[in-house]
Amino acid sequence: MAHTGRRSHRNRNSPGGHRKPKTQKPRTQKPTTRQRTRSRQTTRRALRREVPSTVALLADERDFAAMRHYASFAFDDHGAYLREMEGLLKALAAKGVHTTVALFDPVAYEEFCADTRLDPDTAASRTRYTAELAAGGGTVTYEGQPIARLVPRLIGVAEEQATWEYATALLSRAGHDGECRDDTTARAAFDRAGAALRAVVEAVGPGVHHLVCSVPADETSLVAVVHADAREAGPPKLAEPSGLVFRTVLACGFALRSPGGLVLRTIVADSPETVRGWALQDGWLRPLSEAEVFTAYCTDAETGEPIPPEHGVEYRAGIPLSRPE
Asked: Residue ranges of region Disordered (predicted)?
């Protein structure tokens, strides 16, 4: 056959024509069982950091001994128990878990189990009780402090919580008159206590103030302590929840017309510490004289014997405070 000199053009769609190369999708490999397990563990660890923990601690050796008669309680030495608890707290902190510590009270625990019909000789019941403690307050946040420093703070917070609960009950009863109930009595006393606390701190001026209120009630004495920082401009910074406890105790004194007292120690840089005092009288604070303040501080409350004055402390009269309308 003769050659004509023309090129033959094949149909690109024909089997012999040019084809567009196919793009191959990368093949995705399914995670292995080990990878899936590691992923779940990582996720769980992340979630664990989102869940706070509460640890209930037997700080007192007598309380520890009271728990030993439960067969499910695994410890027999208080020192070893405290070391193990400290190790647990450190382990939780290392994982980034926010942890609070509460005081475990065997008597309250037994009452809790009786009220809820739980078997006290189980770890599950102790866990339930610990959860109740966390919900009720009176806990200390664990921030890596040694157990020797944590225990006294924990006891102090538990005592403060008990004082607040007792003072609240007394204040509530102050509003009862026979079969009638008058909530305004308790509310007015609490508001007046807040006004008195502000008035005292503002009257003494700048510094770090340490206030103590003592109110005798029902054959016992309610004592509340609060710190106020007034070194900077603006309202003094009151430590909470101590401020709430202080106002409640002072309100009890006002509502019950109790002969209580309030003393204040002020610390200012490059100046002697000063101490002032007020007596609860007619629902307000009466300033004590310098001699009364000195006598109150330099007399043993139990024996009545004189106590030497503190070195570097000045005893001053209380400042008159305007009574609110």
From this structure: 1-50
Instruction: List the helix and strand counts (H, then E) for the chain.
Output: 9, 12
pLDDT tens digits for range 225-243: 999 998 887 777 888 889 9
DSSP 151-214: HHHHHHHHHHHHHHHHHHHHHHHHTEETTEE-HHHHHHHHHHHHHHHHHHHHHH-SSEEEEEEE
What lies within 8 Å, CB to CB, of 314 at 6+ separation is: 272, 273, 274, 275
Other beta carbons within 10 Å of 83: 12
| Residue in 296, 295, 285 with CA at minimum distance from that of residue 318 | 285
At 156-202, the pLDDT tens digits run 988 998 999 999 999 888 765 544 455 568 889 999 999 999 999 99
Q: How far is CA 258 from CA 18, 155, 197, 222, 285, in A?
A: 106, 27, 17, 11, 12
Q: How many CB atoms lie within 10 A of CB 18?
A: 10
Query: Cα–Cα distance between 44 and 55 in angstroms, integer?
Result: 21
